[in-house]
Structures are given as structure tokens and as C-alpha cells.
Write a structure and sequence with these properties.
The complex is a heterodimer. By secondary structure, chain A is an all-alpha fold. Chain A contains eight helices and no strands. The chains are: A mainly alpha, B mainly alpha.
């Protein structure tokens, strides 16, 4: 089992730190409105650093751990091939260009915010982006359609955070362990 | 001497890093609560703009944190906020990744994933709700959000088109 992480699959490429940096940099620059699809394309199809199955495993671990999912993917993939420095190369490669670009955008916006059209465009973008997030939330409810306790947990979390405005730490501390316990119980039945 | 506001940014976002299960989208209500309601670093309108700018740039959606840092304390603030939201969770991920493969088939792992999934979904929907209340100040903006939700759910149009259409409608003065 433990050798699986040391030598992924001999047939696939083993990237250098530089290749990790450049590969993830491309992902960062391409990823408009969601980076993960581009990461999958780069890792599985373009460079063949991971198999489809390995990618799914890395992704599910990234989603379960706290932090930005795509950065967790970079950390795990970087470490798998080149240790801690690989993680650093992959994650810095991923963040560098988007970070610079968003600051340039923010500075441009601050300079031209007085122009009615610029302000209007920003409001339009945030309205559409809000719609994307709500739609993503609805999409994510699909796998749990017939699982009543999961729907109950979703509603409870929504009400606590959106309506009652309970601080996230307290909401998570109360809801997450109960939900995991429920899943454990449901699994054993 | 490090400016206190940078320490405060590092502290606030560093804490949030550990709470970001389901990614930064799930964190938006909490970021809004801290940044707008508690710290008064920015107004509702500023927050909506920061969100829009982050969405308009390529890259991970956690960039809203960089824009907030920039707004609060310039480029240094952006760097500190970005590192603070990434570094703690990244170190945790690194540590867990080292041992995770050993627990591949552990039943607890399945229970944790099944149990956290609905919490994440609730958080993402809460983000949408808070953003709609923050960003959609007019009926037209509300309509753009609603139409986007409907079209994303029934079509397979690339998300970027919706952002582009929103920008165009906004620039034409519709919202």
C-alpha cells in the first residue's frame, strides 16, 4: 500500500520540479471560472502524470481537507513526485500569475471605478458569478437526493450560516461531528 | 515593526484556512461576516466588487482573499492574506497526504467524506445566498443571477460566457 505513493505507475512520466512549476502555472492562467477541469486535463491527458483514477483519489482527498481544493491538489501531486520542494514548486507555480493578474485588475478597477460602464460591468459580473455559485450548490445536492439525513444536514448548515449568521467555527464544531457520526451509523446498518 | 493590520490579516485568514472545508466558496459567508460586519474593513459594495474582480481574473476562486488584503493594506496586505489562507491548510494537506494512502479502505474515511459532503453543500448554498444579498442591489442584477442559475442547471454552456454576458449587460447600463 505505502509503495503506491512512492512510485505511482512506472509507465507514466515523472516530472521535474521545473515541469511541475510550469505545468501548474499553465493551469492557473487558463482557469477561468473554475480551475479544476484544467488541472485534470493537464495532469491526466496532457502530461500523463496521473491516471484518471489517481486524479479522482487526489481530488477527493483535496476536497475533504480544508483549504482551496486546487492548491491541495498541487501540494499532493508535487509531493508525490518531488517531495516538499515539489509541493512548493507546484503551488507557487499555480498561484503566481493569477495573483499578479488579480492585483492588476483590482488596481485598474480602482482607477476607473468612476466610469459608469466599468462599475456596471462589475455589478453584472458579480451577479452572474453569484448565479454560478448557487447553481454549483444545487448541482452538488444531486448525489444525496434520496438520503434524508444528508438533506437535513444541508438545510441545517444553510440556515445556521446564511440566516442565523452563526460564526463558522461554532457551526462546524456542532454540525460536522454529528453529521460524520450519522454517516458512520448509516454505513453500519 | 510589522504594521498591526498585517498581523490582523494574517490572524483572520490563517484561522479561516483551517475552516475552509469545501474550498473558499464555502467560506464566503464567514469572510463577509468578519471583514464587513466585524472588522468594518470594507462595505457591502466593496465586498461585491472584490468578489467580481476575483471572478473576472483567471485562477483559483480564493483570489477574493487577495483582493480583500490589497484593499485593506496594499500589495503587502494581498501577499499576507493570500499566504495566510493557503499556508496552514497546505501544511495540513502535506502532512495528511504522507499517511493517507494507508487509510485508503478505512470505514471512518468513508464516514468522514459522507458526513462532510452535505455540510459543504450547505455552506456553498449559504455563500450564494449571502452573495445574492450583497451583490444584487437591483432587480436586473437579481434577474441575471436567476437566469444564470437556471441556464447552468439545464445547459452545458461554459461558465465564462455568463460572466461575459453579465459584464456586457452591466456595461450597457442594464443593471
Amino acid at each position: 500500500m505505502s509503495t503506491a505513493s512512492d512510485t505511482p505507475v512506472a509507465a507514466l512520466d515523472v516530472p521535474t520540479r521545473r515541469a511541475l512549476f510550469v505545468g501548474f502555472m499553465h493551469v492557473g492562467v487558463q482557469g477561468f471560472g473554475g480551475v479544476l477541469p484544467f488541472a485534470r486535463r493537464m495532469l491526466v491527458e496532457q502530461h500523463r502524470w496521473l491516471t484518471e483514477r489517481e486524479f479522482t483519489e487526489v481530488l477527493s482527498l483535496s476536497q475533504f481537507l480544508p483549504g482551496p481544493n486546487i492548491i491541495n491538489v498541487a501540494i499532493i501531486v508535487g509531493n508525490r513526485f518531488r517531495g516538499p520542494l515539489g509541493s512548493l514548486a507546484a503551488s507557487v507555480g499555480l498561484m503566481l500569475m493569477p495573483f499578479i493578474m488579480v492585483l492588476v485588475l483590482a488596481a485598474l478597477y480602482a482607477r476607473f471605478a468612476d466610469i459608469e460602464r466599468v462599475r456596471g460591468a462589475t455589478i453584472g459580473v458579480s451577479a452572474a458569478a453569484t448565479g454560478l455559485i448557487i447553481a454549483m450548490g444545487f448541482r452538488m445536492t444531486r448525489p444525496m437526493k434520496r438520503i434524508p439525513w444528508q438533506i437535513a444536514v444541508t438545510v441545517l448548515t444553510f440556515v445556521a450560516i446564511a440566516v442565523l449568521r452563526v460564526p463558522l467555527l461554532w457551526a462546524l464544531a456542532a454540525i460536522a461531528p454529528a453529521s460524520v457520526a450519522f454517516a458512520w451509523w448509516a454505513q453500519r446498518r | 515593526m510589522i504594521p498591526p493590520v498585517l498581523v490582523e490579516l494574517a490572524w483572520q485568514f490563517g484561522l479561516l484556512s483551517f475552516l475552509a472545508i469545501g474550498g473558499v466558496n464555502a467560506l464566503i459567508p464567514e469572510i463577509h461576516r468578519r471583514v464587513v460586519e466585524m472588522e468594518h474593513w470594507m462595505t457591502n459594495a466593496d465586498f461585491a466588487q472584490a468578489f467580481a474582480i476575483a471572478q473576472a481574473a483567471p485562477g483559483p476562486n480564493m483570489l477574493i482573499v487577495s483582493v480583500i488584503g490589497w484593499k485593506v493594506a496594499g500589495v503587502a496586505g494581498a501577499l499576507v492574506a493570500t499566504l495566510a489562507i493557503c499556508a496552514p491548510s497546505s501544511m495540513l494537506t502535506y502532512a495528511v497526504a504522507l499517511v493517507w494512502d494507508r487509510f485508503r479502505d478505512a470505514p471512518l474515511r468513508g464516514a468522514i467524506q459522507q458526513g462532510l459532503a452535505p455540510v459543504t453543500v450547505g455552506l456553498v448554498l449559504a455563500s450564494g445566498y449571502i452573495l445574492a444579498r450583497t451583490a444584487d442591489q437591483t432587480w436586473a442584477a437579481f434577474a441575471i443571477t436567476g437566469v444564470t442559475v437556471a441556464l447552468v442547471l439545464v445547459t452545458r454552456v461554459h461558465p465564462l460566457w455568463f460572466l461575459g454576458a453579465g459584464a456586457l449587460l452591466g456595461a450597457l447600463g442594464v443593471v
